[in-house]
Amino acid sequence: MNAAEPLPSDPDQESIGHLLDRLCAVVPDYPEPGISFKDLTPVFADPVGLHRVVDALSQPFLGQFDVVAGMEARGFLLASAVAYSTGTGLLTVRKGGKLPREVFRREYALEYGTASLEVHRDAISPGARVLLVDDVLATGGTMDAAASLVEEAGGVVAGLAVILELDGLNGRENLGGRDVLSLQKVQG
Fold this sequence. Notes:
Blueprint: H1 16-23, E1 25-28, E2 36-39, H2 41-45, H3 47-58, E3 67-71, H4 74-86, E4 89-95, E5 103-110, E6 113-120, E7 129-137, H5 141-152, E8 156-167, E9 180-187
Parallel strand pairs: 3-4, 3-7, 7-8, 8-9
Antiparallel strand pairs: 1-2, 4-6, 5-6
Helix pairs in contact: 1-3, 3-4
């Protein structure tokens, strides 16, 4: 935030960066020493903040998607709000083992080990354009796995939208040139 730049009196005129700086709680040394965790729950709890974030995530892609996909769990909150505000459908991308019917499954690397994501095999109409939405882009593993699932299920990835992008973790570079929107880059 530029200290010389005053905050506007009208919250709708406040830049999305200022809004995130003002509302995002920073928790030092969580989940481990040396990490500054960016807690977005105060942004979600603020009616103006939530509205502005949802609009900022969806507006650049308006008319380019039919379905919004959210990754478990905070991505569910954002994707639901984006889908509702744009009158589109919602796809939940779940952690492995949570879905009851036949699924497409994709494993991806974590810092220590692997995890998996799943979507139902019949969740996406062939050729449906899908906007993937999540809260944070770090290394890109989760988002890449979700994008691969959308394509395996017959969808087309229209774009990837996140609130925060952690700088220095190469998440964007690990997404194979996909169209990525992040509302704010922060130190990872």
